[in-house]
Amino acid sequence: MKLTIGVVLLSQYVVPEESFDEYRDSNFERLASNFSCLESGDTIPAGRGYVHGLTEKQLLEELQNSPFAVESFESDEQYGGEGLLRYSRLRKK
Question: What is the pTM of this model?
């Protein structure tokens, strides 16, 4: 019998939902037509690459729908941060 135990520690920036509109700058407007599907939270920083921002709620939903069990989900605020990072401890279901 093969037993595999794994833990994933994840740190992820989250974006306040009210900040999504700020992502749609002149670079976004100029380059957005090159993409077939864009969602709220999508941005093209400095006109290069592509980033999809997640709110705290969206990140937690993604993790809960993953093949991992969410053991902890904490804000960096309790460690003196600004509340823009989430620390997650995940274990294989």
Answer: 0.74
Q: What is the mean pLDDT of residues 52-80?
A: 93
Residues 92 and 77 in one domain: yes
For residue 34, the 8-state DSSP code is G
Provide CB contacts within 8 A for 56, sequence distance 6+.
14, 75, 86
Look up residue 16 and give its two tokens.
């306040």
Q: Are 71 and 77 in contact (CB under 8 A)?
A: no
State the first-to-last Cα distance of the chain, in angstroms, to the nearest integer. 18
User: Are 92 and 62 in a shared domain?
Assistant: yes
Residues 1 and 24 in one domain: no
Total number of domains constituting the chain: 2
Structural domain for 24, as ranges: 19-51
CA-based max dimension of the chain: 57
**pLDDT tens digits, residue range 62-74?**
999 999 999 999 9
